[in-house]
Structure formats: C-alpha cells, structure tokens
UniProtKB/TrEMBL annotation:
The gene is tsf. It comes from the Bacteria. Its main location: cytoplasm. The keyword Transcription regulation does not apply. The keyword Protein biosynthesis applies. PANTHER family: ELONGATION FACTOR TS, ELONGATION FACTOR TS, MITOCHONDRIAL. Associates with the EF-Tu.GDP complex and induces the exchange of GDP to GTP. It remains bound to the aminoacyl-tRNA.EF-Tu.GTP complex up to the GTP hydrolysis stage on the ribosome. It comes from Bernardetia litoralis (strain ATCC 23117 / DSM 6794 / NBRC 15988 / NCIMB 1366 / Fx l1 / Sio-4) (Flexibacter litoralis). This is Elongation factor Ts.
Length: 277
C-alpha cells in the first residue's frame, strides 16, 4: 500500500525518528502505526547493539538537589558527538533521568535503569533514543548522596559535575563553600577526601614507584623506603581534597579554607562525575 506524507509526518511526531526510517517502518508494517513503532524500537535495539563498543566521548552531567538541600543525585549521560550532547531532546532526557533518580533514589546505575519512566523501563527508553539519535547513548556515572547539606558544581563545558556533601553546615554559607569545593574537585580530581580514604592499593603502588625512582636516582638501598615514604606523602598532599592547595588561594589548603569559612562545617564526602575523560 502507498504511504502518504501525512502518515510519515504523524509517525515522526509520535517517535521522533527520521523521515526515511518512518516511511520504511510504515511500509514494512503495511501502514499499521503500532507495528511501525515496534519496528522502529527494534531498529533502535539493533543500533544500540551495533554502537555498544563505541566510545561516548561527549555528553553532559545532570544534578538534582532536593529535600531542603539534604539529598542529591548526579548523573553523567554519555553520547558520541557534541551535536547530540547539545540537542534539546538529549538535555531533556538527561533532566528526566535526574528527576526520576531524585524521586526513587536508586542505589546503583543498574537499579536506575530498571525504573519506569513514561510507562517503560529507563533502559528501554534509552535504547529507543539510541535508535532515534543514531549513536551510542548511555549512563556513564550515577551517585546518590545525603547529608546535612549538599551543593553542586557543573563545569562550564557541562561535561564535569561535582556533588559535595557537608555536615554541621547550618551556620555557614554552604552553597558558596560547596561550589568552591566543587570547582576544586572538578579541576584537580582528587582520589579521596583525605588520606584515610585512599585505597591501600594506591598507596602501595605509589610506594613501589617511589622506591624505583629513588633507586634510579642512585640513593642508598637502606634509605629507599624512607625516601619513598616522602614520595607517598607528597602524592597524598596533591591528590586528597583536604590536603590540596586551594586553587583560588594556593597559600591555604582546602582543610584550612573549610576551617576558616565553614563555622564548624565538616566535609562528609563528594562525588565527581565526568563524560569523555
């Protein structure tokens, strides 16, 4: 049967798929719109499978803070090109996912993908969107945090975001301090809040590197461990948030900045999510 332009237009408005894809789907389904939608969904699944091994080097970070700034979610939604990352529908999808996560507070990305949005599982909705956009789209990072107060920072390129959790924050300008810390974390990418939060495998690796560096520099064998400990100490100073020099005032550490400005505030934790790094 002949497929009219108005029918193609109607299916396009229903699904957002391309004109030619809509025409092919309607032709294959003999003009049945439900059947055509199913065909487009299957096409999306095929595209998703084909794209599974592609890199999501672009995308955006989305953050929702709620419940009087005491809870928040941060999500990284990845895609292949900045053309899609800047697309209004991609941004809308990212915001919808963040709002869904805020309402349900799943613990993991896997739990998030199983939640329903618009009558279908989020995972299926993303698969459909892959078919519509024609490139790989996936959640590349997700975290939920709760504390006395939360603050958010998203870098100007939209590809790096930080959620900062603070306790005993009632007497401080927690939003301004949190944004300063978020900017620090986005720029410096610390591995942990302080040395106590650093994985032992990291310190062991840095110790081994320090020993080899000292040996290559010709240091005495009996002093290698002591010298390597100095390397590890420097690594922890540069790579743990509270010990880092504050990027806006390098004369003070983050710990000193929080002590000076926080009025008893304690930094509980942070989550940094990025796309394309």
């Amino acid at each position: 049967m002949a497929i009219t332009a108005s029918e193609v237009k109607k299916l396009r408005e229903m699904t957002g798929a391309g004109m030619m894809d809509c025409k092919k789907a309607l032709t294959e389904s003999n003009g049945d719109f439900d059947g055509a939608v199913d065909i487009l969904r299957k096409q999306g699944q095929k595209i998703s499978a084909k794209r599974a091994d592609r890199d999501t080097s672009e995308g955006a970070v989305f953050i929702e803070i709620f419940n009087n700034d005491s809870e928040g979610v941060i999500i990284g939604l990845g895609c292949e090109t900045d053309f899609v990352a800047l697309n209004e529908e991609f941004v809308k999808l990212g915001n919808e996912i963040a709002q869904l996560a805020a309402s349900k507070k799943p613990s993991t990305t896997e739990e998030l993908l199983k939640l329903e949005i618009g009558g279908q599982a989020l995972e299926a909705k993303i698969t459909d969107f892959v078919g519509k956009m024609g490139e790989k789209i996936s959640i590349v990072g997700y975290n939920y945090l709760s504390a006395d107060k939360l603050a958010a920072y998203i870098h100007s390129n939209g590809k790096v975001g930080v959620l900062v959790a603070m306790d005993n924050a009632a007497n401080a300008d927690y939003d301004a301090i949190g944004k300063d810390l978020g900017m620090q974390i986005a720029a410096m990418n610390p591995v942990a809040l302080d040395e106590n939060g650093v994985d032992s495998k990291i310190t062991e690796r840095e110790m081994a590197i320090g020993v080899e560096r000292a040996r290559e520099e010709g240091k005495p064998e009996n002093l290698l461990d002591r010298i390597a400990q100095g390397y590890v100490k420097k690594y922890l100073q540069e790579n743990t948030l509270m010990n880092q020099a504050f990027v806006k005032d390098p004369k003070v550490t983050i710990a000193q900045y929080v002590k000076n400005e926080g009025k008893g505030m304690e930094i509980k934790t942070f989550k940094r999510v990025s796309v394309g790094e």
